Amino acid sequence: MPKTYLPKANDELAALLKRKAKLEEKIQQAQARNKEQERLTEEKRKNLAGGIFLDFMAANPSDDLARRLAELLNQHLTRPLDRALFPALVNSKTVHHDNQPSVEKS
Questions:
Q1: Per-residue pLDDT of the chain in tens (106 residues, 90 and over written 9)
Q2: What is the reported pTM?
């Protein structure tokens, strides 16, 4: 009777599939960590740049760059709650935006 290697092959295949599943899980975890780190890095970059711009605007309110930055805030801050965070910088009377009513500033 010939030797049968089927049980050993099945055991080896099962072990490899189990190892593959563990590796795939580790890969997904590593990808999630990388994505979170990229998000945190981008958030930190924005916070640092924003802080620099706000400090510059406060120290140099009549500078052309400070005025242009204030214009950008006026153009891009469309939600009243967002605009309320910049009362001294965002000072336009009425802002019109597509699909939104006018926002009156006092």
A1: 556 666 788 899 999 999 999 999 999 999 999 999 999 999 999 999 999 999 999 999 999 999 999 999 989 998 999 999 988 765 544 444 444 444 444 4
A2: 0.61
